[in-house]
């Protein structure tokens, strides 16, 4: 079912579809004049720092959306393009994928972003009589049948992956088999949604040849397998510090003070917390408001700690699984950061644990991220 709002006056103001009454392209001059009148502090801050704090960004969105609603004609996409043109530091380029740098303000395909969230808040305040809409049934077109998985399975390559043990002599053959089964594997994972355990039972070489996970991720992202490791410490952390310095929250300031005397794993962990502070709230549904969650609680879904000396097998016992918050795969650090911790990916719902052959938290986070891509997890 698709909601199609009738062109009542209030709804016309907040919808950016073809129901708009007028379609006048705004220029940066228009936005600049608006901010000079309604939010001069935003312009002053950008002039002085070349960046915007969270509070200033919220004010920018509030003023811009209010003007959008009042004047009927400014479409969301035109508005966000105007914002990043006027404030270049607000443009964010994603390491891979097609993007123009304004998607955190508004992304059409996913209906997300700061602008969309502000419009949701406005819609929720509309009177019931103003929320007139009609339901339009969407008809699905039948797709031509495709060959079954069994008809396309390269059985000889799957057998090789399962039977051939990793060694220097066998490495090239195994990598070739992984490459030959890539399309079948992705189709199987996407259509059948196997569990984590089932995936690694079918492709056990991903467990004892970690480089295969890098190869798989590279094929999925057009060669971006080392992007996070290259960018995190040298580019992303300095940028996070620069943005966080503009914030006035005591929690963020305390984290930055700690970061000044930290390095390696401790610095990585602290900056992950800073990143969570700076991320926008996530809406939990079409009509639900976005909300910030506790930073310590959020980061525990990524990484939890157990005492040094804890065995990997014990992480899957009922008593230990009860102490892990996330049902989804997460990192577990056996021991404290900076003291020879061992990192393990644990998927407690699947009773699965994968010890990682890495010696630092940055590489462990990178491996967890690739693990999610490999298993098509969200």
Description:
The protein is an alpha+beta fold. It has 19 helices and six strands. The chain folds into three domains: 135 residues; 61 residues, no CATH class; 149 residues, no CATH class. A hairpin with a 4-residue loop joins strand 5 and strand 6. Helix 2 crosses helix 3 and helix 14 crosses helix 16. The longest helix is centred in the N-terminal third of the chain and has 18 residues. The two termini are 25 Å apart.
Quick structural summary:
This protein has three domains: 135 residues; 61 residues, no CATH class; 149 residues, no CATH class. 50% of the residues lie in helices and 7% in strands.
Keywords, please?
378 residues, alpha+beta, 3 domains, 4-stranded mixed sheet, 19 helices, 6 strands, 7% strand, disordered N terminus
Topology summary:
Blueprint lengths: L1 E4 L3 H6 L13 H11 L1 H10 L4 H18 L4 H11 L27 H11 L8 E4 L12 H4 L2 H9 L7 H10 L1 H11 L3 H7 L2 H4 L2 H10 L6 H18 L5 H10 L4 H15 L16 H6 L2 E4 L11 H4 L8 E5 L7 E6 L4 E4 L5 H15 L3
Parallel strand pairs: 3-4
Antiparallel strand pairs: 1-2, 4-5, 5-6
Helix pairs in contact: 2-3, 2-4, 4-6, 8-9, 13-19, 14-16, 15-16
């Amino acid at each position: 079912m698709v909601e199609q709002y009738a062109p009542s006056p209030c709804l016309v103001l907040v919808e950016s579809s073809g129901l708009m009454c007028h379609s006048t392209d705004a220029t940066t001059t228009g936005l600049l004049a608006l901010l000079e009148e309604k939010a001069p502090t935003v312009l002053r801050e950008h002039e002085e720092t070349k960046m915007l704090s969270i509070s200033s960004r919220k004010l920018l969105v509030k003023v811009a959306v209010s003007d959008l609603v009042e004047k009927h004609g400014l479409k969301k996409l035109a508005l966000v393009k105007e914002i990043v043109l006027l404030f270049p530091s607000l443009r964010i380029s994603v390491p891979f994928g097609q993007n123009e740098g304004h998607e955190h303000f508004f992304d059409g395909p996913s209906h997300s972003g700061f602008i969309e969230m502000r419009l949701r808040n406005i819609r929720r305040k509309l009177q019931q009589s103003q929320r007139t809409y009609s339901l339009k049934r969407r008809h699905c077109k039948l797709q031509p049948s495709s060959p079954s998985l069994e008809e396309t399975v390269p059985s000889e390559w799957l057998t090789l992956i399962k039977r051939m043990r990793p060694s220097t002599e066998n490495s090239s053959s195994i990598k070739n088999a992984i490459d030959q089964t890539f399309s079948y594997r992705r189709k199987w994972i996407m259509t059948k949604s196997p569990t984590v355990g089932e995936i690694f039972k079918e492709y056990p070489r991903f467990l004892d040849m970690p480089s295969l996970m890098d190869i798989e991720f590279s094929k999925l992202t057009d060669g971006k397998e080392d992007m996070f490791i290259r960018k995190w410490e040298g580019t992303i952390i300095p940028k996070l510090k620069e943005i966080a310095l503009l914030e006035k929250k005591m929690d963020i300031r305390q984290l930055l003070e700690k970061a000044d005397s930290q390095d390696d794993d401790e610095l990585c962990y602290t900056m992950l917390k800073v990143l969570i502070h700076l991320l926008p709230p996530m809406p939990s549904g079409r009509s639900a408001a976005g909300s910030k969650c506790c930073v310590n609680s959020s980061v525990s879904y990524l990484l939890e700690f157990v005492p040094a000396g804890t065995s990997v097998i014990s992480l899957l016992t009922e008593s230990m699984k009860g102490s892990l918050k996330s049902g989804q795969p997460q990192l577990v650090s056996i021991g404290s950061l900076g003291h020879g911790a061992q990192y393990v990916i644990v998927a407690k719902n699947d009773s699965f644990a994968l010890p990682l052959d890495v010696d630092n938290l940055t590489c462990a986070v990178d491996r967890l991220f690739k693990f999610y891509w490999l298993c098509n997890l969200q």
